Fold Kinetochore protein NUF2.
Amino acid sequence: METMTFPRYSPDDIISYLRSHVLAGAEARNLVKGDVFGTPKLEVLHMIYMRILQKVYGIRLEHFYMMPVNVDIMYPQIYEGFLPVCNLYIHMERLLPVCRVPDFQIADVLNPKTKRTIRFLSGILNFVNFRELRREVYLELQLSYKSAMEKHQQLEAANREAVLKLEKLNTVPVEHQAEVKQLTATIRELEQVLRQDYRRKQTALQEVISQKKSDIAESTRKLNELKVTMATLKEEQEQLKSKIVESPEELKNYMELMKETVKKLKKSKQEVIEKYEGYRDLVEVLPSCQLEVQLYQKKMERQGANVERLASVLSEVRHLEDQYEGAQIELQKWKTDEVSLKRLVTAKHEKLSTADIKITKKREDVEQYKQTVFEYCNKVQEKRGAVYDKVTAIHKEIQQTRFKIQQLHENAEKEEMKAKEIYLNLRAALEKHHDSLIKTAKSYAASREDKIAELKKGLLAVQTAGSSS
């Protein structure tokens, strides 16, 4: 048993597949198992092969009845009946090696066998199924590739537009380059001036803050000293209370001195507190000054950005004005073009109407030509059937004549042998007859000479008798 790379189908499966996937209409309805297997009908099997070739290679029906252009034949009408079979065999011989069936022969078209046709059709059906599956995958890949290419083209177009916009934004027009340079120079000078002012004010504030911090440290030191002296004075007061004498004058004097010292201490304390509060206010004001400086710096930066934006806006405005003027000019051109185009459109509409009339006529002619071609194809098909029947009858007659020729050769050989024998017998008889003829001729010549001599004698006697008289 031969090794195959495809499963062998049963005849029922093959017939059902042919009805559902290969044939259509009346061909599928009228197909029977006996038409293909057992004692197959050649026209049905040829029709199945033709439909398969039409499905796989897209070969049209009229191509099977065409004579090759590169072949020079004196009388192509003789080959009309054999052409479809020959073309079918050529195309099937090209198809079946693709289906892993290498041993297709002309006898499989003219005198098909059941087992071989099952094997051929199994290979073809396996290849057709595989082709359909791969075709779906290929179409999906083609659609995905098409969508990917469209996205790629869209992205490339968007990228080009973005590059053009960036170039437009980055490039400054020649008219505004001098202004932009002056603005950038002024902005840089303003930034340098602001930075110098900010640094100078910052250094001055730092010096003031350091002085205030030193003053606060001194005032706190003095406060601490005063607190220490107050504590020592309170201790002395308590000690003096224990050592107070009864004299009221000394007590009064001492109390007055104490009151004066207390007043002085209160005054100095109040002064220190006032200085402390002033320093504290200054320290509290310092971050607000820093914030104001930062805000001023941010304002300057915003002002620089606003200047740049103003320059870009002015350039865009001028660009838009130029575009507007160009658009107006183009609009006027378009209006003139529109008038001319309307005239052209009217002329083209007239031409289209005439062309439509011509196309309808051509379509009618083409349909008539198609009908004539189909009628001709039907006639050719009928002729093909008649010629095929004639060819089969001629083949039978040729076989019969060959058999008769062989019999005639045998009879001729026998008759030749007989003729040789008759020839030999006749030759011997002719030789005998020839000898007898020679003898008779000789005897006739001798008798003729005797008669001539007698006649001469008679003539002499007659002559002598006449002369004497």
Q: What stands out?
A: Residues 180-334 form one domain. DSSP finds nine helices and no strands in the chain.
